[in-house]
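Pilot study result, target chain (71 residues):
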Amino acid sequence: TGIDIALTPVRPVTVSGTVVGPDGPRAMTGVRVVSRALSGLPVGMMSDVARTATDNTGAFTLLAVPPGDYD
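Predicted structure:
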């Protein structure tokens, strides 16, 4: 087809933490990773890089997050 595509492998990382609000850990709360370039768009137009929810202690883990600038 005359089209060459070069792919560069990247090493994804695991991101984990705890969501805490004014009253303590936030159970069953959604956590999203969104590209900084898309962060100003309405929520329905954003594309998540990774998504999960906290457990009953507010802890979360996102697997295989690629390198990038996120909000």
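One observation from the pilot: The chain has a mean pLDDT of 88. A full batch analysis is planned for the follow-on phase.
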